[in-house]
Predict the 3D structure of the following.
Amino acid sequence: MAVRTIEEQNLVLNMGPQHPSTHGVLRLVLELDGETVVSCKPVIGYLHTGFEKMFEQKTYWQGVTYSDRMDYLAPLSNNLGYSLAVEKLLDVEIPPRATVGRVILAELTRIASHLVWLGTQAMDMGAMSVFLYCFRERERILDIFEMCSGQRMMCSYIRPGGLAYDLPHGFEEAVQAVLDIMPERIDEYEALLTKNGIWRDRTIGIGVLRLEDAIRLCVTGPNLRASGGSLDVRRDRPYCGYEEYDFDVIVGERGDIYERYLVRVREMRESVKIIQQALKRLPDGPYVTSDRKVAFPPRSELATSMEALIHHFKLATEGFRVPAGEVYSVIESPRGELGMYLVADGSSKAYRLHVRAPSFASLQALPVIAKGALVADLVAMIGSLDPVLGEVDR
Amino acid sequence: MGVAMPSDAQPHRKDGAPAILFSKLADWGRSQSLWPMTFGLACCAIEMMGTAASRYDVARFGAEVFRASPRQSDLMIVSGRVSQKMAPIVRHLYDQMPHPKWVIAMGDCASCGGMFNNYAILQGVDKVVPVDVYVPGCPPRPEALIDGIIKLQKRIAAEGSKEGEQ
Amino acid sequence: MTDQTAVAEQPSAPEKDPVLARVEERFGERLLEAQVTFDQPTFVVKREDLIALATFLRDDPELQFIRLSDICGIDYLNLGKTPRFGVIYHLHSFKLNRWARIRVQVDEDDAVVPTLTGEWPGANWFEREVYDLFGIEFNGHPDMTRILTPDEWEVHPLRKDFQPPKEPHEWSFNPEQWQKAVQRGS
């Protein structure tokens, strides 16, 4: 009896854009040889919103609300990046209360973003309880954001000039309450995952991104740090007074999924440290710059001062003008180097605002780490790179 | 709470006792166990996840099981902005869902394009799929989404599922 | 009203910026412009010198701008600058802890720039985005296709003379047409 040979071909499989585990509308075109991924091509653009065009049509003040919605897991981080870029060209002095408040909010955003990352990464890999635990803490942080700005997520609270409103009464107590429970909650997540045999088997040695590859692929943030690249803009080019805070930059070396997990979990602990220090430093005082060409005058003055009325009118109708110039302003968002390249032309609208989204570059690493891996590990790899398609596609 | 019983019971059995039409019972059953599809697009998806998490817990209202496959779900919650590139896919997924099916447009972007009145965003997902409930907000609070789901539940229990209609 | 048109500058340091000095020493006349603003040196070169300058910045032992941060495009139409389009590259050096900017400008009818994907594979998607939004092509790019807007579009949205369509427009998704096309099997 002759044995028939089976002709083998690689299978092209489409994954997404609607998929429970692609962290958004990401489409992957996979070429599979059995269970092995021969090549993986991400197709993006399913969430392209034209943010950069919107920034050119809106005044700088209106642009803040657009910046929230790019990296929608860390809206205040985007606000901060945007505001810092505009303030560099405006050359205004930000009062210390606003600066320290920004640090507290930015680090709370980092914790909230890492909680969503951890919850979804664990849920994708089957650990459903971690998702519920992480969102439980995240709700506490969203309560603080709601207390400050009225909005749980898209706060638009950090604006060029300072903060949108003063930090509310009870802010410090609320933040302290979160800080008091956070370390033991992070211990809870670690108790469920860090020494868990299944978690370790599925993440150690999988999805390795070498340092040379990470640098050549323009990867930043926890992904780069887990591969051994020590780059943290908060330490290297500090903004908002980060040079005064004592925190460690967590750098790994193996570059696998487990390392990226450890880096992010430890970053949450460092963020708690930073917020604790910032709370001690939070001064009283104004929450927005006193430059009347940029920030609205207090309403009490409108009844008595003609100049205040004129400033208010100009700011409300036209918006403040930013002197011509260009700057590339960088902050460390939870995903990496968030760069805002702003070209101003002296008017009240940005001429060009390009957002360098960290996830855009990190996602380019996916084909590299997926090549030769098993298709069953793909979901864990996507999650570990922590892409947010809102900022990838802008 | 939130149990929408069929209220208008006209039919009666021969012995005079009120009878509930089976279809009404089926409608009530469908409304109380909507299976949403995991269709998160953008920021609203995170609030949808928050709604499914423990504080707001949409499972209380029957929508516990978020199915990944459109073939197994009957509710598509379009949560987020629909770009021009994504529009055919939204339609494709809607077509793949078996009848009866419903659509909730969650958020301003899904309802009307939201703050993005530009070249890239569809000005409302109702341009490609028929929408049953619009939930405004940017993003809507989890309570608002639950309110939208409850409204849909009441509507399904009262009006039926328009079997076979587009 | 104060004159707002001057480019904001740091107060000039007594000695020249070391990065500026080193690049000027090597490139001399080939540098069309070189200045430092906000501690970020900006170099403007012709596209023929782009790869030479980028690799010099990366490989020079004193500079070591080994990381490519960002590539973006810009349309100078409304500012009246020529050539019309610019491609802006941002490089980062761990050693110097600074970012540097390279700008290459091209005309509308000759909007081609050499690709950096040979030196930095991560430039791939950034250049595709510039092509998608501005229409500037990159010579030698392995996959010069659109990345953000739908593949069948032919417009470049971030150009200043881009006319946003009024709905309905020919390239907005139309469900009826799409379903007919699906039934036809196209």
Summary: Residues 6-43 of chain A form one domain. The interface with chain C takes residues 44-45, 48, 50, 52-53, 88-89, 91, 215-219, 230-231, 236-237, 321, 323-328, 330, 337, 339, 341, 343, 345-346, 351-352, 354, 356, 360-361, 363-364, 393-394 of chain A (CB under 8 Å). The mean pLDDT of chain A is 91. The beta strands of chain A are 11-15, 27-33, 36-43, 158-159, 162-163, 325-333, 336-344, 350-356.
